[in-house]
Amino acid sequence: MIKRYGFLAACLALSLSTFGQTTVKAGRWHAALQRKDGNTIPFELDLQYQQGKLTCYIVNGQERIRTEDVALTRDSAVIRMPLFESYFKMKVVDANTLRGVWIQDGPDGNVVMPFTAAAGAGRFRATSAGTNKTIQGKWKMDITRANQTKRHALAEFTQNGNALSGSILTPSADYRYLEGVVAGDSLFLSTFDGSHAFLIKAKVNSDHLSGSFFNSDRPAESWIAVKDAKAALTPTVASVKPGGNGKLDFTFKDLDGNAVSLQSDRYKGKVVIVQIMGSWCSNCMDETAFLSDYYTRNRSKGVEVIALAYEAGTDPERSKNTIRKFQTKFNVQYAMLITGVSAGDPQRTEKTLPQLTPITSFPTTILLDKHGVVSDIKTSFYGPASGEHYTKFKADFEKSVNALLVQK
Question: How far is Cα of residue 161 from the mean position of the Cα atoms in its chain?
Answer without folding.
Answer: 28
